[in-house]
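We treat protein structure as text, and this decision shapes the records that our systems exchange. This encoding replaces a full spatial description with a residue-level series of whole-number codes. Below, we set out a record of this kind in full and without editing:
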Amino acid sequence: RDGGDEQAAGEAQDAATPTAGATRLVESSMGPVALPVDPQRVVAGYTTDMDVALVLDLPLAAGPGARGLAGQAFAPYQPEEALADIVKVTTFPEANFEQIAAVQPDCIID
């Protein structure tokens, strides 16, 4: 055995592993958007966006409390253990961009 199968498997794995900073271009109603292939710090814009991030097991770094306010508790149906390290940010009625920028997100869903 010459190891060719192992080398081919390793190369296939390398091709399937996204490189740091890799993006995918997606068309939106506001034009093309570059999304990270493997986001590391996601900020949710509203409670429903947090729901999506939690269900998809995204690396949620920050999100709003109830009604989009940092001073409110998270929605009671969201799992407390999943939100233990999440930074609360205000996103409604106007986003607090300083709070959001301080989290250094690589992806914001809203």
